[in-house]
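Bump. Still looking for Translocation protein TolB structure tokens.
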Amino acid sequence: MNKFYNAVVVLFFLAGICFSQESQKIFLSISKEFKGKTGISILYIGEENRYCSTFIKTLSRDLNYSGYFTVQGLFSNKTTDVSLIKDLTEKSEFVCIVRLLNQQMIEVKLVDSDNSERLKKVYPISTLPAYNAHSACDDIVYYLTGRQPIAKTKIAYVSGGSGSSQIFIVDYDGENKIQITDSPCIKDFPKFLSDDKLTYISYKTGYPSVVLFDLANKQEMPIFSFPGINAFVDFSKVNSEMVVVLSKDGNPEIYLAALDGNILRRLTHSSGIDTSPCFSPDGRYIVFSSDRSGRPQIYIMDRNGAGIRRISYGYDYAVAPVWSPDGKYICYLIRTQGIFQMVIYDTGSKKSSLLPVKIGWSESVSWAPDSRHIVFTRRQNYKCSIWIVDVFTGELRQLTGDKENCYSPAWSR
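Sorry for the wait, here they are.
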């Protein structure tokens, strides 16, 4: 019991540090100053039916959620009306024309304000309408912006009380929630390794251990289960490696390991606590938090542990750094006025800015593949819920209810 209690106390302390068809052309220029949205209208041509209704509704929501568009209207007409299309292109920058082909395919065509066709795709109606809508939105976003789309991504999170907690996976829009674990032990900090595998922290053995969960066969396999702390993993796609925090040698330190759990080297040797490691997208660097200077701050080191340098200044308490998938930003948390808030560090200018959104207490941040949305835990009135914020527009979206007590979200890769 004492071993379990001590392990929980230390891990929560660490968690306190962690969160206490033309050639590709970019039509929408995206930058950190980009706050406006492009107007787009959706026109359905054909007889109304349930499949197309669901498709249009989902596509509209996806385009709005993308952060790049404002859907200015949903229109329908039984036949092609050239004058209607021209009228819509005069009011919107783009018109998305949807039609059903031979009851077998659904066609999506994107027309710009000059009435020029920019994109045309077809999708089989044998596929669920919502999935096809997600695919259509992703195709539009990628074609116009060159950015990774998110409509087909998923988010994992933890839900439950102190005695038992379970991990759930949900579509990025809050649909299709699935519970993937059912064991009675405490679990926390899920993280996607791939579409069909994720890791999380399990207290099944008494100590916090890192386990790998296979979504296909529902099997759990321990990766790190040393006595003490085993926590806070991150993966490098480039090098097929992971970083992890272990206290097997006494103090919580950061280690480099192979994906099978074989430890390659110890990276930090500090008398303080080093935690929350996260790879840069190119696998060359690792950002982490450490109290080696007396108070928790954010540092970057080379992949081999050399070249440690501090990047957070002006904040008394800075923790839980996460690198954006495009490598341009690092989001971390600062404690100010008794609550944690998000800061965005620009790796180009090397400047940090407090996210100017009234969110309240924020924890456990995770970037979306598009490098503009962040999913996080919002703590309010002693309850946790999952929210998404667009770091360019400041728009907020609630993913889980206030009474569900959900936390530790992780966006799929």
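The chain is about 15% helix and 45% strand.

Edit: fixed formatting.
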